[in-house]
């Protein structure tokens, strides 16, 4: 695979080098000479090995599928799309190296990914300096688009090159609070988080909305995400008589936390965000029944707009599933393709010399109906599609309970 | 305060596990003055060994019936790895500057982690460990899970057996002699190499028992579990007086209960509400360690290391 990508990229490099020489000479014979197509590469950065590789492979495959479909439809005449996939192993340092590689390949006009918000933080600046568009299908960290002071209402977009098709933790936490208070009718909650960017942000946004709705936070605590014994915290939860626990964090700690909670005799559900909306959460937690989670978007299986995506994905014969972020990834890749289409259309079907800057400019005008709904980006680079879904564990499976377009 | 019995019970269970692992640190240190930092991984391997036995047994086996087999499997794996580590990683470095085996230990622990990660199916993330079914017991206001009984029983049984071995058997007395003065012990006809291997093996076996307890208590094991548990157990060994067998168990219990109480009550102390959460329990455990070492540098029960110098 790697060799194949390299060969393709090298081939693409030579091709485009010819193209630009033609442009420089001002020769009229340039352009679409001999039916040869201009190759545009979309970079894909995701954890393809390691703990989170299932999600990462879903991202890579879905992005590749988007380019294949666009090529098949001949969406941008005279253009051919390819992906260049790099593995970040969910590590910020590797993500940054990958960013440099993408920037170095001048056929890359946009990058899809990564999965993790902290990896994105290491990639945003190099991409911004290179005016290279980045669209993440999975980053929910609010500060990525709205700056570090978003909690105090001082929203400021830090990097103009960053977009995402996943909505923010601010919306996710707030949606969870509303679901728990209004739909599940629970008004006494114990709040726990793991003090990481994702977990703490989610818990803060949950608390904000939950107290505004009139619910009571009866206690709060933090845990260390590497711990697996939470019995002391559980004893505290039990004392407060909370009717549910909201946990900001990921499933490796949430699984034992939930199980120890029920073992202690407190028969209350644990709720979390998309970090616990994973099959492993149920596998590791024999008492997950009744636990709740929210996730961004609607379950793609339920969307009419996703039917074609699912059948295309199946037809492509990928070994791994599209997982939680497949639909969002397809839309992310597609938004870059749409932007390239606009740039080409504005420039007589050819790429301008400052193609990256032009693509970035075009991103703000991109609008199409994608797999996860209508896709466009607001002034921060956030998706305007704030579809959220609440899930509950029933009979060893996550069952979708409620999907809505949520505006806090 | 009505959850105090619960917090004490939680601390006791956690502390007994620390104590069992700490035996391995303290014994090896007592005899060869080596901190075997790979001991946390030997503990982890014990857990995977027990789990492997479980997966090999027919589906629907009763856990209570097969747990002796699982313990045996865990002990076998741990002892094998522990003695192999002694033979191939530490023995060639005996007599080398102290820093060399320490670095080897750290390298070995990374190696063992990656080995399990690479070869064990599903070990990419945590895997679930079999558990006892049935209602928990209620003892003096505390809820105790069936699986936790294992550690509560295993810890004293192991300690009594160890005490008997060290004081009453020929090998045990040889061990004491080697700890006191290896050169003289050798002159008296004690095979010190064999004694050292034995120290590694006993420590590894105790760690495997602790790992089974860990699996039953937390419901899952993972290839990273040895790091934090190993660090805590090492702390417990130092707290109790490294080199002292009973000190290791006492240190473990003190550490476990201190952690549990810090999580439960530190937040209620006026002005401390910021530092009382579950995330701070490790901080308080180490504060306790520092305080004890300031007052009693040799640890709670002390050791005769000082008069060797």
From TrEMBL, chain A:
Belongs to the leucine-binding protein family. The keyword Amino-acid biosynthesis does not apply. InterPro entries: Leu-bd (IPR028081), Peripla_BP_I (IPR028082). Pfam families: Peripla_BP_6. Transmembrane segments: none annotated. This is Branched-chain amino acid ABC transporter substrate-binding protein. Keywords: Signal. The keyword Transferase does not apply. It comes from Streptomyces evansiae. Residues 39-396 form the Leucine-binding protein domain.
Automatic annotation (TrEMBL), chain B:
GO terms for biological process: amino acid transport. The chain crosses the membrane at residues 12-32, 39-57, 63-85, 97-120, 149-166, 195-215, 221-239, 246-266, 278-295. InterPro entries: ABC_transp_permease, BCAA_transport_permease. CDD domains: TM_PBP1_LivH_like. The keyword Oxidoreductase does not apply. It is a multi-pass membrane protein. This is Branched-chain amino acid ABC transporter permease. It comes from Streptomyces evansiae. The lineage of its organism: Bacteria, Bacillati, Actinomycetota, Actinomycetes, Kitasatosporales.
